[in-house]
Every structure is written in structure tokens, then in C-alpha cells.
Amino acid sequence: MRTRAELRTARRRRAHSCWGHLIAAPLWPMHGSNLGTLLRTCDAVGACLAVPRLPWVPEALARGNTLRHRTCVHFTGDPVRWLARQRQDGLRVLGVELADEAVRLADLPAARGATVAVLGHERHGIPAEAVGLLDQAVEIPMVGHGTTLNVAVAGSLVLYKLAGLL
């Protein structure tokens, strides 16, 4: 059995600058605490975080970065234009959204190429103009009374699945 120090060393053999393989994109954030939670999840699975340039976002990220080391954050301008550019650059754009053709989270394969996991607004989801840019939608089944999870929880579940860790 390996020690904690050996496990920690095996997790990351090089400094993190930009993983680039997996990007969590909560492009219409409502709560700063969700961004901090997603930032922590991104570090855990080796993903980057893409967020819009809103005045309160940098402070929310700084407050949420309990790891106290530099993390990979990409600031976007217009979210729809940014998504279109990611698709144009060959990245797969996956949206966490309720849709007729959505794949269930359990059936979602690990990301085999560079993938953006788009997370919508807490109340309104992914805007219609951005839904048209999705290559695929994934839904998280729920058996309780609620219809959605908060962005940080939904994003964390999808990121772990895409990273092949679930």
C-alpha cells in the first residue's frame, strides 16, 4: 500500500499551467460560492475553469480557492461567442441541460478529446442561442421533488464522469 505522500506525488507529476483537455464552463453564474466549489473540482480532476468577465467573479474565485495555489482559469468575453470559438477550434461542447436528446449521466463516456462542459444559469439553464452550439447534452436523473441540482454539484458530477474518475 502506498503512503499519502506517494499518492499525492503520483497524482500530478508536473506543474499545472493549462490542462486544456477538459474545461468546466459555468458561463452564466449566479452564485460566487458555486464558482469556488467548481474551481476545487477542476483541480481534483485536472480541468480548467472558464468564467465570464463579471466584476464579482475574480473575488469569488479568490475566496473559493481554498487550495491557495495558482489554478487554471480562463476569462471569457461574450459566452456565446466564446463557445462558438471553442467549437471552431475543434473542442467538443457538452451542455448540462434537460433536452429531448440528452444522454443520461450514467451513459456519458469519458472525454476522449478536448471537451467543454457548459453549465447554465441556476434558474434559466443554458440560453437558447448557446444550446444551438452544443454537440451533445447530458442530463442528471433525479428521483426527488427537485428538477435540477445547483451548478456546482451538477458540474462536479459531470466533470468526474468526463475525467473517467467515476
UniProtKB/TrEMBL annotation:
Which Pfam family is an annotated match for this chain, by its short name? SpoU_methylase
- InterPro entries assigned to the protein according to its UniProt record, in alphabetical order: Alpha/beta_knot_MTases (IPR029028), rRNA_Methyltransferase (IPR051259), SpoU_MeTrfase (IPR001537), tRNA_m1G_MTases_N (IPR029026)
Query: Known Gene3D superfamilies for this protein?
Result: 3.40.1280.10
GO biological process, alphabetically ordered? methylation; RNA processing
Q: Which of UniProt's keywords are assigned here?
A: Methyltransferase, Transferase
The UniProt record lists the tRNA/rRNA methyltransferase SpoU type domain at 31-160
Q: What Gene Ontology terms describe what this protein does at the molecular function level?
A: RNA binding; RNA methyltransferase activity
PANTHER family documented for this protein: RRNA METHYLTRANSFERASE 3, RRNA METHYLTRANSFERASE 3, MITOCHONDRIAL
For this entry, the protein name equals: tRNA (Guanosine-2'-O-)-methyltransferase
> In which organism is this protein found?
Saccharothrix variisporea
